Amino acid sequence: MDRLDNTVRPYAWGSPTAIPHLLGTRPTGEPQAEMWMGAHPGAPSRTGRGTLAEVIAADPARELGERTVAAFGPRLPFLLKLLAAGAPLSLQVHPDLTQAEQGFADEERRGIPIDAPHRNYKDANHKPELICALTEFDGLCGFRPPAQAADLLDALGVDSLKPYVDLLHAHPEDAALREVLTAILTADPEETARTVAEAAAACDRLGGDHAPYAGIAHHYPGDPGVIAAMLLNHVRLQPGEALFLGAGIPHAYLSGLGVEIMANSDNVLRCGLTPKHVDVPELLRIVRFEPGDPGVLRPEATPDGEEVYETPIDEFRLSRHVLAEGGAAHDLTRDTPQILLCTAGVVRAGEHELTPGQSVFVPAADKASASGAGTLFRATVIV
């Protein structure tokens, strides 16, 4: 079992205080957006044996287990994070596995440099995600029913939004959503900026269901993503609740601290709320125009005290153990690789005492147990 030394990424949208508060460290004044735990080449965790990527590469079967290697290759298939949003992230979607493989191969064939700003596919993998709230956490996830989106836009009283309102009342619903999102993202930028300014002022005045979009517009004035965001469900997670973001589901995180786990990929197609490249045709190919409930997840308890966040993904499995002082130790031994992260209290994992924000890597089949008084998140795979 290896204690992990993890990198904090200073993305501009990050909270300057949330991660330091959890870790019990002094804020630097700079944003601290994500703390990465895993073997991602961009910022692999460090261990006493080298980086976790180096440790796994030296003996994949030992560290990951033969079944994990057979299913996913000689690499850790997930990345675990602490994510602290102090401002909205970009509105985005992720491809499914087939779309990622095809998109990556096409851009490789066309010779687009991997670091080109207009490159869509950094790798050939999909990027399903799960975010579990540690504090109250606001986000956008999936399309509202079009009639609800029409009502939200109509209440603003902005004349230039009336055509979108009319389109949202058309049928079938998926075609209506596609047509409206296309119109928003391809409209004249100057006209869009004026529309967004009017809409933001109206959201600020109306408050209530419109308040989140006033906040978004404050961070991204004139961005068409402000209007696109109003097509989506606004979700406020309470601590312990989670969202699963599958392929093609438009989403954005707005504020709060959470534990995030994802398949190892950097593939993002953006819809707005960003100065970065927005490839509208490719985006429209990937987005699933399906309105519905965002599906807030709550953990399902098992007889041995584990609380599991069930998802349809094999690359990762996230669960938590809420431990009480004097209670029986929880056996965590598995034949798959694990990362254990403490988020509250003091937890003993093997020979390591973990406080909030501290984590360990457990190689496949190594004996592992947890005790103490606190909360321990457990990331592994399903094989």
Written account of the structure:
- The protein is of the alpha+beta class.
- The chain is 28% helix and 28% strand.
- The chain contains twelve helices and 21 strands.
- The chain has helices spanning 18-23, 52-58, 60-64, 66-72, 97-109, 146-154, 162-168, 173-186, 189-206, 211-219, 225-229, 280-286; strands spanning 2-3, 7-9, 34-37, 46-47, 50-51, 78-85, 91-93, 129-133, 137-143, 232-237, 242-245, 251-263, 269-272, 300-301, 307-309, 317-323, 330-331, 338-349, 352-354, 359-362, 369-380.
- The strands form four sheets. Strands 1, 14, 15, 16, 17, 18, 19, 20 and 21 form a nine-stranded antiparallel beta sheet that branches. Strands 2, 3, 6, 8, 9, 10, 11 and 12 form an eight-stranded antiparallel beta sheet that branches.
- Strand 18 (338-349) and strand 19 form a beta hairpin.
- The radius of gyration is 22 Å and the shape is globular.
What is the compact description of this entry?
The protein is of the alpha+beta class.
Blueprint (SSEs and pairs):
Elements: E1 2-3, E2 7-9, H1 18-23, E3 34-37, E4 46-47, E5 50-51, H2 52-58, H3 60-64, H4 66-72, E6 78-85, E7 91-93, H5 97-109, E8 129-133, E9 137-143, H6 146-154, H7 162-168, H8 173-186, H9 189-206, H10 211-219, H11 225-229, E10 232-237, E11 242-245, E12 251-263, E13 269-272, H12 280-286, E14 300-301, E15 307-309, E16 317-323, E17 330-331, E18 338-349, E19 352-354, E20 359-362, E21 369-380
Antiparallel strand pairs: 1-20, 2-3, 3-6, 4-5, 6-12, 7-13, 8-11, 8-12, 9-10, 9-12, 14-15, 15-16, 16-21, 17-21, 18-19, 18-20, 18-21
Helix pairs in contact: 6-7, 9-10
